[in-house]
Amino acid sequence: MKFASSLRFLSCLLLGHALFAHAATGAEIVRIKTGVSAPLTDETGVVWRADTGFTDGDTIDRSDLTIENTKTPSVYRAERYSMSAFHWKLANGKYRVKLHFCETYEGITGAGERVFGFNVEGKEFKGFDVFKLAGGARRAYVETVDVEVKDGSLDITFSSQVENPQINALEIIPAT
Fold this sequence. Notes:
Layout: H1 2-24, E1 30-33, E2 40-41, E3 47-48, E4 58-61, E5 78-81, E6 85-89, E7 93-101, E8 115-120, E9 123-128, H2 130-134, E10 141-149, E11 153-162, E12 166-167, E13 169-174
Antiparallel strand pairs: 1-13, 2-3, 4-5, 5-12, 6-11, 7-10, 7-13, 8-9, 8-11
């Protein structure tokens, strides 16, 4: 009995240390759902912040669409488009950034009809075609980028090639 009690104490101590270390670094997962004005709780119970951090662009909500290739279709039913940049203050360090995309605009019916570029902390993506990468319209696609923040801000820039850039959500996950 004494051994089990000591083991529980040690487990709590180690868990507490891990939680304290996580809290001490200020490292938290940031999830932003674009195109919405209030936080979103997705189908798995994950809470996403309302649209924030973008310097410009517009938003649209298409709440009636069926989205394939995901367990969380609510994440893809609204978007920000025509934006040029995103900035988020972060502690310097390494992060995994997940950019969530889905072609939901009815005017895009094939590959090559919306092509744009973006740059995540110096990592360049040119000729980005959501329709092509996802395998069609209304199909979720996630692009994952590992980056290092050195100036206290995660910076993403977007550039238009054909039509306007768009994004449905993004996640910023501290590297472990």
